[in-house]
Amino acid sequence: MKSFALQAGGSRLLYHDIPGDGRPLIMLHGLGCASSCDYPRLASDPALAGRRMILLDLLGSGFSDRPVGFGYTIEDHARTVAELATHLAPDSVDLYGHSMGGSVAIVAATLLGDRVRHLVMGEPNLDPGGGTFSRKVAAIPEADYVAHGHGDLVKAARTEGNSIWAASMSISAPYAVHRSATSLVVGGAPTWRELLYAMKMPRTIIFGEASLPEPDTERLPQQGVGVRVVSQAGHGMTVENPGGVASALRAALH
Description:
The protein is α/β, with parallel strands linked by helices and about 250 residues long. It has 12 helices and 8 strands. Helix 10 links the parallel strand 7 and strand 8 (about 225-230). Helix 5 packs across helix 8 (about 175-185) and helix 6 packs across helix 8.
């Protein structure tokens, strides 16, 4: 892995830099996950062969640092992504984010402006209110979540057979997960949907077939946002059908 020291506080982001040609594609994971865990299979798919990819673990997740004083809001994460993107690819970059990572990608794209040539998301949070998991986490006071809630969720995931996600969660900082979940529930101002609609670069959102019906599959194209559907997959599309996600990504990036 490679390491990048952020200017504020000196915390380090860790990431895999997959060699390849052209603009780098920075890949951002969801809540309680890690790109170092979720995306190596995706990055090795023939559909994305030859493309440079940055598999970034956000602060508080995976192998990156876990500063206690960091806010871990979507906007906080986006600023770190924009700083790394400026360091790695000052001229142009593509962004992909899944779930919470999609929201982070939207805000990072706003900060980076026309340097972002393609913005692709997998079932991102666009509106305040969060999702089922983030609402469950945010409903618990942070101190209680750190003390026992996080461990309880990890144990439940293992019991349910969701061992990979449980492993990612177990090494995520509990306070980071809680603060990020709370940020998803609170939302942004302007909303991430409003920011997305205001952008001009090619934008695409990927949905898992099992997540349908979804009103956004009709609403988004009316705002110039492309939609692609991955078969045999739901929200966990990267694990359920990585080849399908890779093919959808390749189509969205051309």
